[in-house]
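Researcher: Let's try something more involved. This one mixes different molecule types, so please make sure each is placed in the same coordinate frame as the others.
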Amino acid sequence: MSQPLLQVKDLCTSFDVESGEVRAVNGISFNLDKGKVLGIVGESGSGKSVTAYSIMRILVEPGRIKSGQILFNGEDIVKYSKLQMRQFRGKRVSIIFQDPMTSLNPTYTIGNQLREAILLHTDRTKEQANARALEMLQLVGVNDPQKRLNQYPHELSGGMRQRVMIAMALACEPDILIADEPTTALDVTIQAQILELMKDLQKKLGMAIIMITHDLGVIADMCDEIIVMYAGRICERGTADEIFYNPCHEYTKGLLRSIPKLDSKNERLIPIEGSPVDLTCMPAGCAFAARCDKAMKICLKQLPQEYWINDEHLASCWMNVKKVYDEAAKGGEA
Amino acid sequence: MLKYAVKRILLAIVTVFIIAAITFFSMNAIPGGPFSKEKAGDPAVQAVLEKRFGLDKPVHEQFIMYLGNVLRGDFGISLKTGRDISQTISESFAVSARLGGMAAATAVCIGLVLGAIAALSRGKWPDRLIIFVTTLFVSVPSFILATLLLLVFCLMLGWFGVWSPNNPNYVLPVISLALYPMSYITRLTKSSMLDVLGQDYIRTARAKGVRESLVIFKHALRNALIPVITYVGPMTAYILTGSMVVETVFTVGGLGTKFVSAINNQDYPMIMGVTLFLAILMVAATLISDLVYKVVDPRISFD
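Model: All components are placed in one shared frame. Result:
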């Protein structure tokens, strides 16, 4: 078996604040193969973005990677020097952010910012970099690209700015593109356009994508694999079909119930009651137990292990163990 | 841009006119006059002098007359020294402006650097030290600072000579003049820098692989400068025209000193001359800093 492009092994990222240690990411592991699309889903504060920032190592103080490995082509980037990290960012792995309105520097032209990314990682001359910037803007479907190069971010709409961000991220042909809620700040029609663009670019350029979102609907037909995160841990993972049609964690089920469906008439959406757990004092058992309406005694006491549902599906929920026991008991009676 | 500048200049003329009017009428409302003190014993002489300079007419007539003269470029002569006012102002402004120019440059250069250092070392000792010292300089009145500097470095340690017109020693006056704006700029730069460093586009720059020094000097500093410019414009005008306090303490014969003595003497044309000069300078400085904005921040439009 060939080596995965990216391997995250038992990653722990914490923020040391006055009230204690916030364990934003609490021991997660996953692999990403070349050219695949991985979705990371979870509500606010579940550690999705922190995972992304850990991979880029752009955590802001007091955030730090406490333990674990992030292997890119087998090399642990947690051990990279600042210089190595600078050459890695934007070249091997790029990221686009949630809010395109604030993600571009307001005091420099689009051309200047695109050129900067290109010149940092390639030996192109300024003219060649300009040509490349133009080419990238055409690729992401920005209209009138020549004119845009000399414009400032405030002269462009949100959707256009996100296209520019994508152009900037892909300018140096990275192996992985991390998209941290790329459509959350955009209105619905623009959301669809941006997603369509990303799918299209993925086909054309063949980079792997880590798609981070709190909206399962956004990534339904885009991802090869989906990870569901809750309170800094992975609670369920599997192929997109398995997650959507055979959810095996109560939290995932809750998320799916809260998505509106096309065929439902006058049905109320079912929200997940309660609020996320306090990351400074994590419970001993399953972090979701307090909000789970099927919680059992063991859920409060002991952390559930990852349990294989089938070859393509893992879930960390005691309900799956219970199911096995129940079925065994039934079999015994019969 | 041009339309904006013209509009601003027209507005500036109105501003200067209002300042002139307020000063003129309130100055005349103060009891006494330029000739009332020394010549108090001789009412006849006083009356002749007042008639000679038109002070016997109603105040509003005097004001109109004054404006007419000013429009013809005649600021009058000092009632105290008899010298031409434009000439007096230009001579003493040369002294104040040289002193102020050095002080303003010092304040901006050191202030920006200290502010950036404080922001980058937030919570660590350089930040705490810088904030402690600058808070001190912002809170202590300049006449105390100036007097202390004079006492310690001039009289006790003898490092710097006392100011004299033929042998001006700029070091201490420049320091006393620069400390307050420098401290203010430091604090302004720090808070604005911290604000900018938390912005998304700084994260974008880091994610692109930009070197940390470039993140700070290319991406952060330019944005952080925007609020600082608002302060630096008027500050420069203020500092150039001379500080009454600092000039008095160091006996520098600049515009500040002239202004104070004009007020004490109720030297009406001199007060008006200096006030108009200061007002025009201030308005011009504000206008220039607004135009500089546009250069630094492309989002600002003048339409």
